[in-house]
Amino acid sequence: MDLTRLTIHEMQELLTKREVSATELVRSVLDRIGRVDGQVKAYTTVTEDAALKQAEAVDRLRATGAPLPPLAGIPLAIKDVICTQGVRTTCASKILEPYVPPYDATVIRRLKAQEAILLGKTNMDEFAMGSSTENSAFFQTRNPWALDYVPGGSSGGSAAAVAADLCAASLGSDTGGSIRQPASFCGIAGLKPTYGRVSRYGLVAFASSLDQIGPFTKDIRDCAIMLRAIAGHDPHDSTSVDLPVPDYGAALTGDVRGIRIGIPDEYFVEGMDPEVEAAIWAAIRTLEELGGTQEKVSLPHTPYAIATYYLVATAEASSNLARYDGVRYGYRTSKPDDLLEMYQRSRREGFGPEVKRRIMLGTYALSAGYYDAYYLKAQKVRTLIRRDFERAFDTCEVIATPTSPTPPFKFGEKMDDPLQMYLSDIFTISVNLAGLPGISIPCGFTKAGLPIGLQLIGKPFDEATILKVAHAYEQATDWHRCTPAV
Amino acid sequence: MELNAQRSTLNAQFEAVIGLEVHAQLLTRSKIFCGCSAAFGAPPNSQTCPVCLGMPGSLPVLNRRAVEFALKTALALGCDITSACRFHRKNYFYPDMPKNYQISQYELPLAWRGSIKLPADGATRRIRIHRLHLEEDVGKLLHAGTLQEADYSLVDFNRSGVPLMEIVSEPDIRTPEEAGEYLRQLRAILVYLEVCDGNMEEGSLRCDANVSLRRVGSEELGVKAEVKNMNSFKNVQKALAYEIQRQTQILEEGGRIVQETRLWDADQELTLSMRSKEYAHDYRYFPEPDLVPLTSSPQRIDEIRATLPELPQQRRARFVREYGIPDYDAAVLTASRPLADYYETVARASREPKLASNWVMVELLGHLNKDGRDITESPIPPAELTAMLTLLRRGTISGKIAKTVFEQMYQTGKSADLIVKEQGLTQISDQDELRRIVEEVLAAHPGPVADYRKGKVQSLTFLVGMVMKASRGKANPQVANELLIARLKGEESGGNG
Q: Is B6 a domain residue?
């Protein structure tokens, strides 16, 4: 049996029955990382020794007969934008390359409290800005399904690691689609929870009002397990919401009879890849066969979503990234003449081109004389987009769309044209602007064998329903069982 | 340009228009957005955490106590409370600021539209408050040498994130003296509310001023200069007087005022221009996405209103009315709440408010000031001072002995009763014993006795003094006086032999 192929709940079963030890499990995943990650390049840092030590500790705990939490001994990977105490957290940026956080993010504390095993940190677009992981300052991560294709982004490393069985599950962050799009590209499940459902404390901020941490998993049951582990109010994050966290596993009944599935007209427009469109309609038919009903809904402000997003997100980013100045931590230029030169050269040498582009865009949008026309107007449109969804959810429980308008693309294909790259997130961005939960699940492959993702969007804090629908679909299909050849 | 910074009289053509921005550090235990101690004076960077160091991924959480303090102040100043206020980010780069933005308030401050009344020639002048808001303090830079020549600078982030309350007045102030009075009143209110220690020298209370001139009778505002770096009440007045003179001279010579920031140089006693280019900021304010809007319900505002103490001006007026002490004394005794509480306790318990006022103001404050101590550190608690005043009132000890007793109470912390008993300081009112002393004194000083009889009444004072001396201060001076007069006059009338 190849242990690395297993889902979290399959691993749990073997661990509980003591058919396998956490140490064996972790060692087999670390071995596979050693064999395969040279091709995939999902990890920026692998904490092999710490992982093995943790695993041995879990095994000792289990030997005492004490009941262990659900994630005890499960090997996980963490996007390199989430702070891990004592483990380098680079955001795939030269400016944070040497940075070792003095504290754990709240999600990390929660995973550690469950005795989960942290294997290491995964590659990403620098500061989570990008849709292909090509903006990493270090190296490109490859799509496990086709190594000359991108894994999507910005959480490309976390998605590729799960798809290539280099971990049982992983955490990513999603500001405009950075979990769902790479999940779609890599043929796995990726969930962006409702804004406020998961603490952002310790998530290095890109756009504070949009960022949310979420899991990548091999199936929906794992997704429910991971969400339950990381969700919940955190006094360290004022924007996290004090609501009870349901038992998401209990929602996976397989019964979706009577559930109304909203299909937004605005999301099925020309320019969409025909193979993607066909796969999505097939998935919707499958859900109908399971007892769901199709409802036409309208999200009329969809055409403004990308413009709105690139004003709000860049404005917040321009401020959030101001702290990287060479004064306290991270990269500092050598021998500057004065303070201003230290600022300018540290930032010029430390940030990559996409990050600089967004800092400039955001600075411009917030500048005196432009604020009302750009930032303020964008906030107003954001409200309209949120209202679109509120109205749509009057007549449906979930909204189904493609996750991405295209299947994975090749390296370099969109790097010269930022606007083309930005369009990659056209179906995911509105969900962040509206603060809603969204999940991408595999729903087929192109003729070339590249994965296609279905996006399910839910009402605020109703992750349970999208997980239930995703799970029912998964039960009726085999896409999630397909694994790449690496 | 020769200017007399002390002079604050104006050329009659112009009047000064002054608005003050006051920053008050709040006396919360912890910082405004994290749990670190906000205390002053700890070793550099010992009171820091990922939040106040601006570490990647850290998030602010608003200190409820800081909000309560600001609401309290806003209510005491008669402000309107904003029902849902917001925090904004003020973006600019400076190494004392770990995030390169300051979390402050912008369009929606915590409160608006209050006022402070200044006593002015029997009437009052109302200085309007424009707004009151909360923000975080920045760290402190320590330069290796002067700012211009230092090879490097160090940053201490202990102050980073200490809660600050900014109170902005309307440009209603007309003279440096009025500015000083506004500041003193404001400080007294803050200290009374126990929200700020009001120490300008240590920087827990800071003041910037906007100053412009206009022709008398004009309603338009002139071009203003912002004056910073005034770290005492005296310096605020001096700097404003200087700035008014400077602007007057420019206008009189037909020049134009440049809008700029000027730094007060207390050594040279003049304001110097900071290069305006360097400080021409576009702060790119936008709502702080890491914090949710702050709402204050009417119930919460009422709860806080109910905790407001009597404010210094009200208390001062009441002291004059209730205790019959002069307004000046009432002003001194209400300068801080613990002092006013101390006085009031003694005044009530001793039933001698005037006597209490003298002893607290002259003796107690005299001693405390000399030792650099605060009233809260007084070695004599109010009950002990009351006990001593009671001994004095009953005539058990004389006024002179009382000073000795007070001195010992202050030094040793012993009670007045104990000191009087241990040292036998009880006043001699016993007629027989005093008569004996009087006889001794009369016999020892025939000269003054003769003088008195010749009509030199002042000799009596000398003789009383001698009685006091002979009794080592324990004689009741009044009784001694009476006995001496009776004896001197009696002899005169009775003849000698």
A: no
